[in-house]
């Protein structure tokens, strides 16, 4: 059976995936994230005999981000096998992508609409409206997911079009990366929510 966990609510999809994997007992599990996924590794795992006769399962992280040739080869192997495969993707997949596994059990996790509402307020001279939305984001405990979506949003603007000055936007993007790093390494001297607010105030004022 193929199980697919996807959507822009990464926290919820990860939690559901990990809860499912934690319930697997007495099985050999091959766990591979995108950069580790190789045709040879999966083929060897599928065709090797387990010394203890255990059942097998495979976990593949960000599988749909693989290059097309590798994706197609591994998909063919997976569809021809009889083992359980658990796939996690850090975004919502399209119907076309999901057709690669027509018999899969699909688990979609959507982000709160408030997140997108807040992202849409990030425009020049729109500080007051942004702050009212941002406070709601923080009250609902959505900081981590908001920061993830925010970085992706700004990255796309840097690659395409933005209402902001490109140099200023790039500076803000680098500050977001540094904020995330300092938060994860315990170097922040103020709450992360306040630090993020200050960065965005500088962008919007």
At the fold tier of CATH, the topology name of the largest domain is: Rossmann fold
SSE succession: EHEHEHEHEHHHHH
| Count of the separate structural domains | 2
Q: Approximately how much beta-strand content do the residues carry?
A: 5-15%
Helix content range of the residues, please? 40-55%
CATH architecture of the largest domain: 3-Layer(aba) Sandwich
Q: Which homologous superfamily in CATH is the superfamily of the largest domain?
A: P-loop containing nucleotide triphosphate hydrolases
Rounded to the nearest angstrom, the radius of gyration is 21 Å
Total of helices: 9
Biggest pleated-sheet summary? 5 strands, parallel
Class by SSE composition: alpha/beta
> Which strand order spans the largest sheet, edge to edge or round the barrel?
2-3-4-1-5
- Unreliable runs, pLDDT <50, ≥5 residues? none
Estimate the global geometry from the Cα principal axes: elongated
How many strand segments?
5
**CATH secondary-structure class of the largest domain:** Alpha Beta
CA(first)-CA(last) distance: 52 Å
Please explain how this structure is put together.
The protein has 205 residues and is α/β, with parallel strands linked by helices. The protein has 2 domains: 2-108, Rossmann fold (3-Layer(aba) Sandwich), CATH 3.40.50; 113-204. Helices cover 53% and strands 14% of the residues. It contains 9 helices and 5 strands, in the order βαβαβαβαβααααα. It has a 5-stranded parallel sheet with strand order 2-3-4-1-5, with helices on both faces. α6 (127-139) runs antiparallel to α9 (192-204). The longest helix has 19 residues, at 166-184. The radius of gyration is 21 Å and the shape is elongated. The model has no long low-confidence stretch (mean pLDDT 93).
């Amino acid at each position: 059976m193929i199980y697919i966990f996807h959507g822009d609510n990464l926290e919820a999809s990860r939690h559901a995936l990990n809860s499912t994997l934690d319930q697997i007992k007495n099985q050999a599990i091959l766990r591979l994230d995108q950069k580790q996924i190789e045709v040879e590794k999966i083929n060897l795992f599928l065709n090797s005999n387990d010394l203890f006769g255990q059942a097998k399962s495979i976990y593949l992280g960000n599988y749909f981000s693989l290059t097309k040739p590798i994706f197609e080869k591994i998909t063919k192997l997976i569809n021809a096998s009889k083992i359980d495969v658990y796939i996690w993707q850090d975004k919502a997949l399209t119907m076309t992508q999901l057709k690669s596994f027509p018999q899969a059990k699909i688990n979609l996790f959507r982000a709160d609409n408030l997140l997108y509402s807040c992202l849409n307020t990030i425009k020049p001279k729109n500080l007051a409206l942004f702050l009212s939305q941002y406070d709601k984001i923080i009250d609902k405990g959505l900081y981590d997911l908001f920061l993830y979506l925010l970085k992706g949003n700004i990255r796309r603007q840097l690659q395409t079009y933005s209402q902001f000055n490109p140099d200023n936007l790039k500076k803000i993007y680098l500050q977001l990366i540094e904020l995330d790093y300092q938060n994860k390494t315990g170097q922040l001297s103020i709450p992360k929510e306040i630090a993020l607010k200050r960065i965005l105030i500088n962008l919007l004022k």
